[in-house]
Amino acid sequence: MEKTIVQFILENIWVFLPLGATGILATLVLFFLPRHAAPSKYKEVQPDYITIFNRRMNAYVVVYLIIWIMIILIGLLSDFLIPTIIGGIIAAVPLIILILLEYKTNKSKVS
Amino acid sequence: MSFIEINQNFGENTQLLAPFIAVIAIVWVFLVYYSYKKHGAKRTIVYFLPIIIATLLIESAGVAGGRYYYSGYIIYLSVVGGAVPLIIVLAWSVNLFLFMNLGKYFVSKLYQKQNYLQILFISLAAGIFGVCLDLLEDPLAHHNNWWIWGTTLKGIKFFGVPILNFIGWFVLIFFMSIATLLIERSRFSENRKVLLSISSLAITGSIIFLVHALIVKLFEFMNLA
Questions:
Q1: Which domain does A79 fall in, by range?
Q2: CB contacts < 8 Å between A and B, how many?
């Protein structure tokens, strides 16, 4: 009979409890220890762009696009058409939103 | 069972496993290198190491509990009794880094204020993007035996994949993104951020555990899982 991860952790609580307790204690110590180093203010790093075929694109969108294409290709080669098409459409939604948003922002900057 | 195991039968009982591993390996190397060049070594550790440790524990517990198992990979790691391929935990670090940065990119276009609400929006976007890609990847993985689900699993399934798996993806990416962003934006030194990112896994892990347990109970109550 399969167990959920939650059931497994509860059954082996004596393995996970000391790990968790040590981690929580260490976090509290690290959190409240006096700071020796000068606090550095968080600086937002602008999203990086890379140029592909003379088009400036966000590096992470390109990586997502590559993964999406490769998984669809593997799906088609696996004779797994319908789930690949349905999954491919759902997985394309973030890509479409991000590309449209980029296009809209660029357009509003120009105008 | 030792911590590291080497499997001699690469690709056993699977289909097109090599291209899947190649995609993950190439993307992982690229993203780690990209993060290192952009943010430096310590920040890269904050982004990649905690999720590797967390998913090694979670995946190992999932395999040890008999929910699923992995066949045909080369290098396996085992921490709590279940053997998990090294490439799977590396894939999880790709997931977190990629979806968190896509979330940042998406939210920065709509909401520029750097506050807790922005962290929440980024994490929500990261979780949703992650589930979108998993809805493509997981059914294919199931079909090609890249990971094999237990035969007696009940409840709603999406092309053979239990719906709780997708909820698990969302919960994990959502809470790990929150933890990573909070540490990233804190004013501690870089060394302390590295230590905090690892030690705070106990807190993030406990929250993930509680939320996931509640969702499982809710699904069981509604006869959905």
A1: 49-110
A2: 186
